[in-house]
Amino acid sequence: MHINRFTEAVAYEAPNHFGCTSLRLQGLDVSDTENFWVGLSHFLPGGGCEHEATPLEKVYVVLAGEITVITDTDEVTLGPKDSCHIPANEARSVANRGNEVASMVVVMPNPPGTGR
Asked: How many domains does the structure of the chain reveal?
């Protein structure tokens, strides 16, 4: 078992995100997960990420506030305890269109070559 305390979580820069602070909770540089990593992103009002596709699937779980997820074919607003799966290579953007900070857990596979 490997415990990471929230008070010691390491911040990281999420590419193409704005108005956002992200913390690594498990995986990559903070624990020895073999197949995935877990992050926590806090989006300020007006914050989000650019519309783009990545080669890795991802799962979003909203903890607080609301996050709107926009794909090429759909747009949905997620509230607390709502989740969604974004398949690999599906373009998406996210936006906090509300006036409260929105918090979201992100779970993604490790990039190729980073598994342990």
From this structure: 1
